[in-house]
Specification:
The complex is a heterodimer of chains A (117) and B (111). Chain A is mainly beta and 117 residues long. Chain A has no helices and 11 strands. Chain A is globular and about 45 Å long. In chain B, a hairpin with a 6-residue loop joins strand 3 and strand 4. The chains are: A mainly beta (117), B mainly beta (111).
Chain lengths: 117, 111
């Protein structure tokens, strides 16, 4: 079984609809991240969470919200989807070990392809 | 932002070595250099990381310049499965929430 799973894998929605993308992990990591990737571009950080009670905005948080329901679950919501939110969305996890600042590895899910009409 | 510069694309033949360059002139002395790759239709995956010394693992080798302003990811024998976009990133001491994934280098491996 995959360590980081994302549901749904593909989603088509209409402008103005609220949608939720879910991420689950079995790695036991405290840190979780949401990224979006647009065609031909790198990944951009939307939100991140270092533990259940911690939520932080990333580079492009406008139009998105997140919920960290448990250590293993991190959901991304689009309150009112718009066409320019059409993209590939990735969830990732990492664990920062004591004394290893800068060495943490991020583990990515398979991605959710979202199309907003 | 922790920005790196990589060629947009490179091409190699199967079973030949590949050297993927990366410039990171603004890196500080405590920032680690990480490489990830993204296979088609998949999420990025970790390849290797290092600080000052050259590093080897089962996937690749990482050669870091003495001044640390550049590094090279070395795939010793490219396979078709190595065709991917390779991202060079450096991680500020504050942690990976500061990661900046640029456009990376798209590697094509010819049979």
């Amino acid at each position: 079984d995959a360590d980081v799973t994302q549901t749904p894998r593909n989603r088509i929605t209409k402008t103005g609809k609220r949608i939720m993308l879910e991420c689950s992990q079995t790695k036991g990591h405290d840190r979780m991240y949401w990224y979006r990737q647009d065609p031909g571009l790198g990944l951009r950080l939307i939100y991140y969470s270092f533990d259940v009670k911690d939520i932080n905005k990333g580079e492009i948080s406008d139009g998105y919200s997140v919920s960290r329901q448990a250590q293993a679950k991190f959901s991304l919501s689009l309150e009112s989807a718009i066409p320019n939110q059409t993209a590939l969305y990735f969830c990732a996890t990492s664990d920062l070990l004591v004394g290893e600042a800068g060495q943490e590895t991020q583990y990515f899910g398979p991605g959710t392809r979202l199309l907003v009409l | 932002d922790a920005k790196t510069t990589q060629p947009n694309s490179m091409e190699s033949n199967e079973e030949e070595p590949v050297h993927l360059p990366c410039n990171h002139s603004t890196i500080s002395g405590t920032d680690y250099i990480h490489w990830y790759r993204q296979l088609p239709s998949q999420g990025p995956e970790y390849v290797i990381h290092g600080l000052t010394s050259n590093v080897n693992n089962r996937m690749a080798s990482l050669a870091i310049a003495e001044d640390r302003k550049s590094s090279t990811l070395i795939l010793h024998r490219a396979t078709l499965r190595d065709a991917a976009v390779y991202y060079c990133i450096y991680v500020p001491e504050g942690g990976s929430e500061k990661l900046v994934f640029g456009k990376g280098t798209k590697l094509t491996v010819n049979p």
